[in-house]
Design goal:
By secondary structure, the protein is mainly alpha-helical. It has one domain (about 1-190). About 80% of the residues lie in helices and about 0% in strands. The chain has helices at about 1-10, 20-30, 40-45, 50-90, 95-105, 105-115, 120-130, 135-160, 165-190. The protein starts with a helix and ends with a helix.
Amino acid sequence: MLRRLYNWVLSWADSPWGAFALFAIAFAESSFFPIPPDILLIALCVGRPAHSFFYAGVCAAGSVLGGLAGYLIGWHFMGSIGIHIVAFYGAEAQIARLGELYHNYDAWAVAIAGFSPIPYKVFTITAGMFAINLPVFILASLVSRSARFFLISGLVWKFGPGIRAFIDRYFDRLAIAFVVLLVGGFALIRFVF
């Protein structure tokens, strides 16, 4: 079933409605859909490299708005809808741990999930459930999702279609390395100043 969904998402790259599909998939992925928008983003950028940054903006906007929908699910509907989405991803046991992360790190937990390969939807829903500060949630989502999608689009724009296989193969490792460097940089700044 996931392979069919993957192929369906990828089929939008050849459609004149590709940018609209990208927005919708990014929106849905941030709250319930299992396929990340990255695959369509890469395909669209490969097809029209001059529009790479436009596609990144569309993807980021859809993702942040979808994140707000996820937040709303967790805030108002955790018992009826949110728990089923979290269960689908097998993250029930992590809910208490996420509450701890939000309590201790607030925006950092959202930002790391927004950039990394961690299922972002689980974080958006539980952020609403734990009622973390909404402006902080929006800002962390905007920064992290934009960084992720603009980085992917920038790589495709700069290096062309050949970078697609590299991104597909090493995205998880690249995302983890970026997060480690980001957190390390802020820790260094905090330590020095």
